[in-house]
Amino acid sequence: AQQPGTPLSDQEYHQFFKFLQITIQASTACHLRELYGCMNSLVQKLDKYENHGVIPSGPICSELPGNPFFRNFCTFSLYRCLTKKYFLKV
């Protein structure tokens, strides 16, 4: 364990910036979704990439307490963006 107030080790910095970069990318994708909507071709490419080439149709169920059901993947993705739970899965 490191002493409080000391800098991160090289390995800890690598993990810190790796997570930060991923979060920034997810935030950017959410910003595109909010600006252009789910029908935008770039947003659709990102959705397909996230889902192995196919955007799920129909209702999306999740293990979220209180929000287990979303009418489609777009609604689910918007929820993740608004709550900043970028890596939430169904």
From TrEMBL:
Function in brief: Acrosomal protein that maintains proacrosin (pro-ACR) as an enzymatically inactive zymogen in the acrosome. Involved also in the acrosome formation.
UniProt protein name: Acrosin-binding protein
Localization per Swiss-Prot or TrEMBL: Cytoplasmic vesicle, Secretory vesicle, Acrosome
GO cellular component: acrosomal vesicle; nucleus
Keywords: Cytoplasmic vesicle, Phosphoprotein, Signal
Keyword Signal: yes
Organism of derivation: Platysteira castanea
rRNA-binding found in the keyword field: no
